[in-house]
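Data deposition worksheet. Section B asks for the primary sequence of the deposited chain exactly as it was used as input, without tags or linkers unless they were present during the calculation. Section C holds the resulting structure in token form. Section D is free text for depositor observations; keep each observation to a single sentence. Incomplete worksheets are returned to the depositor.
Section A, Depositor: J.P.
Section B:
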Amino acid sequence: MAKANENYLKLPGSYLFSTIGKKVKEYQEANPDAKIIRLGIGDVTQPIAPAIISAMHSAVDEMAVKETFKGYAPDLGYEFLRNVIAEEDYKSRGCDISADEIFVSDGAKSDCANIQEIFSTDNKIAVCDPVYPVYVDSNVMAGRTGTYDKNTETWSDVIYMPCTEENGFAPQLPSVTPDLIYLCFPNNPTGSAIKKSELQKWVDYANKVGAIILYDAAYEAYISEDDVPHSIFECDGARGCAIEFRSFSKNAGFTGVRLGFTVIPKDLKAGDTPLHPLWARRHGTKYNGAPYIVQKAGEAVYSRQGKKQLKEQVAYYMNNAKVIYEGLKDAGYSVSGGVNAPYIWLKAPNNMTSWDFFDFLLDKAHVVGTPGSGFGPSGEHFFRLTAFGTYENTLEAIERIRKL
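Section C:
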């Protein structure tokens, strides 16, 4: 008789954004005249840049001709994309990363979840709190997190690193030694960022204790301050302790196209075992790459015209972030983020719980955000708003909130 993976049964409730979608749908059905503005999910709203669309059209035309038709993509991804990534994202910043250490995929979210498969279930993970839910959920599915405590909303075998007002929403080195450390900077959900000197401390720590840092750099394109690193490989010794995830979703608007990549240095080891060949085997066996047309679109991101157009789009979203940050601050809210990331992290007023504040905003202002408690226990009484809406909707949403 077939049996289900019991680890999946340990997951509490439904996925955060599924719960939000259900609540919004129910409210809309009950209030059909309400004009709801969604600043919750981190989905982009601006169209893909013309230079990228042009590259996709050319790639489609190639697929219609026998001589230029492409079938399955290479396991690691096409060389034309990996080469330009290595040059533009790493070598140009002084990072020692080569094209054959880059694995092209269908997105950073997939890779952040799938990477745990190449590690033993005996490994103990450390996560920021609050944290992007995929990191913890995928480890729950693997059976690595122990038992769930409904009262504290924590897992017995997970090391939580609180990110609070007191520490500037940046974690401190853990007191209990982990094997795998999940870090995300610029951070989702808090929008916080750390300086290179601070990230270097994490790299030094990981090398000292034999841990591996799983570094999510999906929002690096939004960094505005010079002393904030765009890659963990800007730090000395990172090749020996780090894996990095990148995404085209937020910097190029590929949420509906799907493209990302993961960097695993060839000299990175778990104990005595090199990890590059393990991920190559997993990547090739459970293929989650991207088709030729999408990878050609990715190449166009790095073209002169592509970079110019994407810089304008990033500026568009960061202007939205400024509108949200300044509007809420002027209205008396305690806010952070929005400088190096497209997320604003605000404190719910009157000590409201984050879900109560969600219901309050939806009912009174018809604005959808994301409850902080959905990202972890330290997110209670906090709330995330995204800058990925349209400028017009962002202005209207903040004006509605200001009037409450």
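Section D:
The first strand starts at residue 37 and ends at 38.
The longest helix spans residues 304-330.
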